[in-house]
Description:
The protein is mainly α and 161 residues long. Helix content is 67%, strand content 2%.
Amino acid sequence: MAKDSRRVEAYGAVDELNSLLGVVISGCRDPKIALELKAVQRMLFVAGADLATEGDSRAKVPRITRHHTAAVEEMTDRALKSLPPLTNFILPGGSKLASELQFARAVCRRVERRVVAASKAESVNGELLPFFNRLSSYLFNISRVANMKARRKEDPWKGSD
């Protein structure tokens, strides 16, 4: 497979996200967040293997399933329960942890775009798209939780200044 194929771009972006989460975890002082992010890393290894394996050999590797997406949705729901509702868009930032999680969210969105591109060129697991979409939502909301725990106010974006 060519190193610039859409599939390689997709699983390379997954590897980048997983590595970035390793950086986030290394500086995370919140054991609950770190534990959840480790679970996400394990799911990302499954997603990478799923994307890296084409054709009939897909049955021999783990695959992202609805179970993985549901697990991410559950983590998101737990995070949302502790957060006030948003009334504005917010600027990425705040605490170091929250900023790193926002960066991971942006990388996750890139993964999602790469998976879309790969799916247009060849067959990929259809559960990967909802998984990465929900994962980016989780990363956004857990960044808000990190700011709340650090007592950092969210910086609302209110249009062009």
